[in-house]
Amino acid sequence: MNRKPQFAWQCSYMGTVYYRVTDETGSYEVSIRHSVSDYELSIANGDDVRHAMRTGIGMLVRHAEALPADIVAAFNDWRAAEHAAAMAKLDAAPQRYGVIAPDDELRKPPMIARAASYDPARGWTPVCELERAA
To answer: With contact defined as beta carbons under 8 Å apart, do 16 and 34 qualify?
Structure first.
């Protein structure tokens, strides 16, 4: 049985978003870092941790192991669809949410996630080309 992966937001904290993934292998947590703040860098425990924070931006990871490309591609498709649905909801009710300008930051699609593996010397390293949303 080839079950389509399901994704669910769990929490966001300090530039990282955590999601629950359920697929034919079971249920597990993945994360993607979208930013790193000066505060985070100032409290990081060493240059290697700061390097890992910087190189991890845009990488969809499960611990230090690389995720399969099909999971990353499905995640990108899911996030693009979630973003489109959220924008449609906001646009359908301008009296409630206001009119969102075409160039508003909110309209910017989510960053494309990449599969990555962790190497202590290099940090997070993409394992393949961008897994674009279809």
So the answer is: yes
CA 126 to chain centre: 14
Which stretches of 3-85 are assigned E, i.e. beta strand? 6-13, 16-23, 26-33, 59-61
Write out the H or E segment, with its range, that includes residue 79: helix 69-92
Q: How far is the C-alpha of 3 from the C-alpha of 33, rounded, in Å?
A: 27
Residue 127 pLDDT level (bands cut at 50, 70, 90):
confident
Indicate the average pLDDT of the chain. Answer: 91
For 87-102, give one letter per residue: b (16+ CB within 10 A) or e: eeebeeeeeeeeeeee
pLDDT of residue 38: 95
CA–CA dist 56, 117 (Å, integer): 10
Give the amino acid at 17: V
Residue 129: what residue type?
A: E
The three-class DSSP label of residue 20 is: strand
124's tokens: 């997070």
